[in-house]
Each structure stands twice: as structure tokens, then as C-alpha cells.
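Notebook B, p. 112. Complex prediction, attempt 2.
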Amino acid sequence: MKTKAALMVERNHPLEIEEIDLEGPHENEVLIRFVASGICHSDLSALNGTIASPVPIVLGHEGAGIVEEIGPGVTHLAPGDHVIAVLTPTCGKCPMCQEGKPFLCREIGRLMAKGTMVDGTTRFRRNGEGVPQLCGVGSFSERSVIPAGSAIKVGGNAPLESVCLIGCGVTTGVGAAVNTAEIKPRTSVAVIGCGGVGLSIIQGARINGATTIIAIDPVAEKRDLALRLGATDVIDPTAEDPIKGVRQRSGKLGVHYAFEALGRIDTVRQAWDMVRPTGRAIIVGVASFKDSFPLMPAGLLSERRITGSAYGSAVPARDIPRFVSWYLDGRLKLDEMITKRIQLEDVNQALDEMTRGEGARSVIMYN
Amino acid sequence: MKAAVLRETGQPFSIEDIEIDPPKENEVLVRVVASGICHSDYSVMHGVLRSPMPVVLGHEGAGIVEEVGPGVSHVKAGDPIVASLTPSCGTCPMCLEEKPYLCFQFSRALRDSAMPDGSTRLHRGEERIHQLGALGSFAEYMVIPAGCAIKVRADAALDTVCLIGCGVTTGVGAALNTVDIEPGQSVAVIGCGGVGLSIIQGARIAKANPIVAIDPVAEKRDLAKSMGATHAIDPFNEDLVKAIRGLTGQGVHYAFEALGRPETIQQAYSIVRPRGQAIIVGVPNLRQPIELPFVNLLAEKEIRGSAYGSSTPKRDIPKYVDLYKSGELMLDQMVTKRIGLDEINEAFAAMGRGEGARTVITFS
């Protein structure tokens, strides 16, 4: 079949909108007709090379849609089901899946690096050549074939044009707060970077009962949004030293949890300097895999901890329906995070805006 | 009284006759029976850790209470005590959170080598002499904060249980308090001196398996095996990451670093499995940042510090003495030799060469 898709054909160049070929699902795969796809910062990172990925590739990895066809062996889904595409195929065979930690599934790395199906082949074709798809999803396309484990069924009452954000940014952020950090009630939290992921961390902190939630972002619009979504304090790091600012707002000692949602080495270091004795710095942002980060050893003496959070330590079959229910009962605010809804043809403009740090989240709508 | 005084970084101790003042309010005068020599003493001597000078080092002491100052009710003259590193002031924010191992007075005492009020009880004529960590056990007597004096059972041999004052509590506590090892989880320990051997024993008590001891000195690897290590690796002879992978598949659940060196901290972080933890127990040079690979964060690998074994001394020190008496905690085997105060410089030289686990100074 044919599908309209936005492809990166060259790094740092605008995506090409083209009709390309799509093969039907193989064993343990499903064909999805996407209803909506968020544009996530990792799409930009793939485009500018921060995240290594093949070229050409169909970008987009934060999609929700309707199952059109299932491949052999798929029993948990049927055509017509509403699904959110997730980043881990939950292969079920690797050591981490067997320990119940599918957010560290061995296949994620391959899907990220190669953009193929689990068997290493591709379903998209352009001029006869196979084209991979980001994270095995490729939601900048009207239709895509994805690993069956990456399709999580949600109720028919969940509006796909909003809950699509749960596919990546929201699960990454909320999960970092409620799964990785297991934030305790009445604690203090700082969040560096208030894009889609940072705002989701703030919401997870609010949902878990943190009482001091400090949002740090240079963009006034994002700080305002952070306040509406649960932040109790904001810091403009261009106007105030963020480390001092956090200490002033957290009883001098620093915060129990500092989250970094940018993937920048300087802010990783800031997060470490913001936490109190025995506090935790949780790095959610993704830097280049080749980067190193400096650790100032003094913090070790006060038993500080630093760790990463991979896809919000999420178990998708458990967490995606849970986060959808939080949206439906009003605890998790998604519509407020969506800056605008656009057509696939407008994707380059949205990526440019993201490069400039404007807005939280654009969502592509398919008709 | 006789004391080993360090007057200048990098120089040997001089054995001097100095004066000690009586205990003030909330202080205790202790006749030192024995003191272990710990690697942190060595770090101060060589300037890796800083202290005002002149200073009496030694912070792993045990002895008998001679006299108590006003306001002290939990010990009395004649009581055997092990000196804890933390005064557990009971009023600072961290003590109020029941984390006396991060007591504000503790860090101040280490920084200033003085009592919590900033003064010291040691002098030689007009010259003020500092006492490491508000202790100073390389001397016949010491005046210490009352909270540092932890009473122990009368049948505990002080020339052995003195090790519980620092190294043993730091190591055993890192395994039993800082982290929550489940039976059957894998542990690696880099550096098998007094602290590392104590971590290994804590891991054994927690029923970890395997327990991999990593040290270039054959004698220490053998000692580690006799204390609970199931495997030993010479890191100069074998590729550490490969060897650990061979034993555990994905890496260890917990990698403890007991040396405080940047390269071994990096090693510890490199041998943990996804979601595993590297626990830094050794005290690093605070001025030198440690470069770590970002990719480890993507696998949710954690790096964290352990301070004084996350211990609550009045709970843990008597507990470790009990574990020693019941045979579960092997301390006698950790004492390489016992010496007089006059032999202290030779013992420090041997430590510089990486020899032996623990030397204990005894006072007659």
C-alpha cells in the first residue's frame, strides 16, 4: 500500500513529504493507521545527529491510532482497537524483560540505532529501497507497521489526538517521577527544562504529592505553563543562579529530587549540585551517547545519588492505561501541553519552532 | 601525655609530649587502649584530605572513659567505649531525619579537626594542636564529643573492636545500610583493605552471591576469600569488565569502590548491570571531578556515595560487636599487626606500599 510520510533524507535538512510504499505486517507486527503524532525533541535530535540514526528514515515516535491489520501470532490486539505506540517492543526474551523491566529491553537499542523491526528488516520502501522508522514506530506517516509489543491498547473513550503524547514524552516524564524516583509525599523537587518531558515530570511530582516543585526554564511562557501544571516556584536561569535559587526555595539544603530534562552536560552538573544530602539527581534528557559527564565528588560524601531514567522506567502494559486513566480523571493535563495541532505538511515549521525553544508540543493530525 | 603529631603535610609524625585539657560540657576524656590506622589518616598525611596543622591524627580508637564533662549521662568513668566518627548532635537537620552519619557537627569536625565549638583540647605550651575529626586517637588520651563515645560490652577486646570505630562500620554499613542487598544478588568490591574486607563481610551477611573481590595484592585477595568473597580478580592481570561479565552476564547489582580513586570509581560504574548501583565508599580528592560515561545513565545505572556506612552508631556499633562475638564478623583476621606508637611511621610507610589490611596501635 501507499502512505504519505515525512522523511529525513539528509541530516539538518527539512523533512521531505512523500508518498512511499508500506508492506503489511509480518509475524508479531501490526499495521496502524495513525490518528495523531506528537513531535518530540528526540525527533529533532535524530535530525541534527545528536542521536545516531540511519538516513533516510521516517521520523516520529509519539503516535496513537487504530489497528488496521494484525500479523500472525498477534493475539492481544484486533483490527479496530485504539492503540498508543510505545518505545519498547517488550520482547519478553531478553534478561531485562524477564526481570519485568521492559524499559531496558535489549531490543530498544536496536530499534533506536537502526530503526528496523525486531527481525532487522524494514516495512517502508522508497524507490525500491527499504526505509527504516525511528524507534520502530515512524509516526510521521499516515500508516506504519510496528512491533506488536509496541502497540498498547487503550479504551475507545480516550481521545487519541491528546493521549498520543503518552507514547513518549509524557510516559518519560511522569514515569521518571512516579516510577524511577518514586517521589514521596511532602518532598521537594526541581525540574530543569520545561518542554513536554519536563512538564510531565512536574505533573508526576504533583500527582505523587511533592509540596515544593521548582520549574527552571529561560522561556517565560514555559514557566507559566509549568505553574499551571503543578510547579509551586519558577526560576529563570538567565536571571538567577539556578543552584542558589533552588537552595533558597528548599530550606537551604537543596531538593530531595532534581530532574534534568534537557540532556545537556552543564545542566546534568547543575542537577547534581541542587540536591540535598541523600537526595537524588535523575537524568531524563538524552545527550550524545559518546558524551561523558563530570561528577563533583564532594556530593558523594553526603550520599547524593545520580541515575538515569529510561523511558520513565515504564512497564507499558501497566503504565500506559494508568496514565490514560489519569488524563481521563483530570489529574494528568495533556491538552494544556499541546501548543498547536498541525498537518503533516507543517512538520518542518514545527521542528524549526522547537529548535528555537518555542512552545511545548505540536501534534500532527491525520485525517 | 605521648602523642603522634603531624606538623606538616608529607612529613613523618613526631612523637611528642603534649598536654590535654579536661573535658568540658558534653565531652568525655578517654584513655586510648587501641587505635587502628585507617587510610584516611594516610590521606591527611599526604594532603589528599586537608586538615589544619599541627594535628593529632587517628580516628579509629577504643578505650576506657576516664572522666566525663557536665551533662554527660550515657557513659561514666570505667566504661569501655568505641569512638564513633559522628557526634550525632541530635539537633541538626540531618540528625532530626535520623541520619546521624550526615550530622553537621561531623563534617565540621572533619573540616576543622576540632571540637564542635571550634576549640581543641590539645596543646603544647601555648601552641594549639588539632585533633582529627574531634578525636585524635594516635595519643594516650583523647577528649571527644560525648556523642562519639559509644559504650560496648565489657567482654569485647578493645584492641580488636577498635576497628569498628571507622573501617568496619564504614564497610559493613555500606553493604547493610546504604543499599538493600537481596539474597542471591551479585556484589563486586574494588579494594580489599580494611574497608573493602568489611564490605565483603557485610555482603556475606546479606547473603549476596557471587561476591567478587578485586585487588592487585594476592595476600589481600586470599584474605577476601577467607572472609566471604566467592571469587577474586587481579585487575592488573585480567580485563575487569570482561571478567565480571563472564561471572555475572550483565554486570553486578552492586559495585563498591573502597579506594576513592577516580579510575577505580570509573571502573565501579563500568561493571554494574542495567539498573545496578556503584557505591563509592572510598573518600576521593574533592577537588578533582570524575568523568563518567553518559550512556550509563541511559541504562539507569546509579552512582552514589556511602558516608560512614549510613550508620546510626549507638545502634550499629554494639550490633557489630555482637556480630564479632558470635563469629559472624571476622575482625581478628583483619589485624595484620599490633604495634607501639613509636612504630607509627613504619606502619604508614607500609600502608603506602599497599601492604596488609590493618595495623593497630596499642597503648600499654
